[in-house]
Design a protein that fits this description.
Elements (H helix, E strand, L loop, with lengths): L1 H16 L4 H5 L30 H18 L12 H32 L6 H5 L5 H12 L11 H12 L1 H13 L4 H6 L3 E14 L8 E12 L5 E9 L9 E11 H4 L8 E10 L42 E14 L2 E10 L4 E2 L2 E2 L15 E9 L3 E11 L12 E13 L3 E14 L11 E17 L4 E13 L6 E13 L5 E11 L6 E11 L1
Antiparallel strand pairs: 1-2, 1-18, 2-3, 3-4, 4-5, 5-6, 6-7, 7-10, 8-9, 10-11, 11-12, 12-13, 13-14, 14-15, 15-16, 16-17, 17-18
């Protein structure tokens, strides 16, 4: 504004000092002609010294050039990049929304395929499609779910899945996100909406009841998992998860399931292959043993109780203890890698060092094993490998180490070893089948024997086969059946066995919650009678 006022003032002063004759005024419009055709303008040194001298043409025209410059500044100007607005440019601008819609539809179609392939192994589609989130919210959720143990979601699919879920659950948010991304610089909208901090949880109240002297911990139980994750765009992330435990032997009923940091080696070394995954977890984490280790959260349950070989506290009387109670959380470090083998196959590898299970001369104590510190200085080691694709995956696991604290001259070091194999298959959201076998061998020691060395081992082994079939889509209703068994053998007795048959129906309820109703028939070793148990579980995630 000050510059414009100054130009006006200069022009008025010059006009007052040098009035313009009529003939010259008619020629002012010729200022657009070539410079070679206009009269030369004299320098200030050539101007007459006296006021009475006749002004020259150059002196008379000068104020009008100032006026032209001033009026040019007042004219509206087109922004940079649009100075040449041709019909072709207009046609491209009109076609841009249609092209954006076509690209968005293609992204959503690819996201639907990736979602059905990568995200329905542990839960059905309706659980996710019942949630309403923004594009940024879905990006945060997918990144957190992809970081879970056992998840095999390539980073190249994350954006497409987020776009598909946003379009299905929040169409207005999807349209707004598309418009914003068209106007904003690349990546700015994504960074603005995505949150580095997220909270999550599972409410899963259950009730179990049955015949006299039947279920362990009968009645109602308010199972709850809550957690938080920190997931910036950098290679470092962290997560913490706590649950309400059905035990109260160590500190309280609140138990830390996870408290770990993760280093993404692919991001750190800037690997450009989206199908390669390599991470290191350090802290307290769920040890990757067996397929069920990736489904230990109640939000992933398909039955009221876990399989026998992983079940502790939700069994019936006189059935012993599990091969490996889940969730098996321990302190240590784990290296995980996922590598493409073929165009439709990938290989996953886990290798870890942890404190390991704990116990004494009478065997492993699983309640003591829940402690956050080890009872000896010998770490336990283990690993897991899987091979498969989006339809079927087979895996094998092994872990072992020393579980006691030896005393010189009294108790030798005692070891354990657990091995297992599993297979998981599913077809879209219609049928899901899972089977697993696990065996635990533990050194046995009796103090009266000499020399001080183990005299044999206790062996606990078991299996389960489980299948689920969707029989109705909206609302989703599925039928489930499971048969599992477990055997226990010591150096002093033959195998004692237990078998169980479970039948149930699952109902998908509002907001992605799942109602599970199960009937269990237990066959115990003689002389114990058969037991009938009914269970109901209602799980909701947020």
């Amino acid at each position: 504004m000050r510059a414009r006022m100054l130009c006006v003032a200069v022009w008025l002063i010059c006009a007052a000092m040098a009035p313009l004759p009529r003939p010259l005024a008619a020629d002012v419009s010729a200022d657009t002609t070539d410079a070679s055709e206009s009269e030369p303008v004299e320098s200030s040194d050539a101007l007459p010294a006296a006021r009475g001298d006749k002004p020259t043409a150059s002196r008379e025209v000068a104020p009008h050039f100032l006026l032209r410059a001033f009026t040019d500044r007042l004219q509206p100007r087109e922004p940079e990049g649009f100075s040449t607005f041709t019909p072709a440019t207009q046609e491209r601008m009109l076609a841009a929304p249609e092209q954006g819609q076509a690209e968005s539809s293609a992204t959503e179609a690819g996201g639907q395929e990736a979602f059905n392939r990568d995200c329905t192994t542990c839960h059905d589609t309706q659980r996710a499609l019942s949630k309403r989130k923004s594009l940024g919210g879905w990006r945060t959720t997918i990144r957190r779910m992809a970081s879970k143990s056992g998840a095999d979601i390539p980073s190249s699919d994350w954006e497409a899945i987020a776009a598909y879920l946003t379009a299905q659950t929040n169409p207005a948010g999807a349209a707004g996100a598309g418009a914003a991304s068209a106007e904003a610089p690349a990546g700015s909208e994504k960074q603005a909406e995505e949150s580095t901090l997220s909270a999550f949880g599972v409410f899963s109240p259950l009730w179990r009841g049955g015949t006299t002297d039947g279920p362990q911990n009968p009645g109602f139980f308010p199972e709850l998992w809550v957690g938080a994750a920190w997931q910036p765009q950098s290679a470092l992330s962290a997560r913490v998860t706590a649950c309400i435990s059905c035990h109260n032997e160590i500190v309280s009923r609140v138990e830390v399931v996870e408290a770990a940091m993760r280093l993404d080696l692919v991001k750190w070394f800037q690997c450009i292959d989206p199908d390669v995954k390599a991470t290191i977890d350090a802290g307290r984490f769920i040890v990757p043993f067996g397929a069920f280790s990736a489904q230990v959260s109640p939000g992933a349950f398909r039955t009221v109780t876990p399989p026998l070989i992983f079940n502790m506290g939700q069994r019936v009387a006189n059935t012993g203890v599990a091969v490996l109670p889940m969730p098996y959380a321990d302190e240590g470090a784990n290296l995980h890698a996922s590598l493409p083998v073929d165009h439709d196959l990938d290989l996953t590898l886990d290798a870890y060092l942890v404190n390991g299970l704990q116990g004494g001369s009478f065997g492993i104590d699983f309640l003591q094993s829940r402690d956050y510190v080890d009872n000896n200085s010998q770490p336990s080691a283990g690993g897991r490998v899987t091979l498969g694709n989006q339809f079927i995956r087979a895996g094998g696991s092994i872990t072992g180490g020393q579980f006691n604290s030896p005393v010189a001259g009294m108790t030798p070091g005692l070891n354990y070893q657990i091995v297992g194999c599993d297979i998981v298959a599913h077809y879209e959201d219609i049928v899901r089948v899972q089977a697993e076998y696990a065996r635990r061998d533990v050194d046995t020691f009796i103090g009266s024997f000499s020399p001080l060395q183990p005299i044999g081992n206790d062996r606990t082994s078991g299996y389960y086969v489980q299948g689920e079939l969707c029989v109705y889509d909206k609302p989703r209703i599925s039928l489930l059946a499971r048969y599992d068994g477990q055997d226990h053998k010591t150096v002093f007795s033959d195998a004692a066995h237990v078998r169980r048959l479970t039948g149930g129906v699952n109902f998908a309820l509002p907001d992605g919650s799942l109602l599970m109703i199960n009937y269990e028939r237990w066959w115990l070793a003689a002389p114990f009678p058969e037991v009938d148990v009914v269970g109901i579980r209602w799980s909701a995630t947020f």
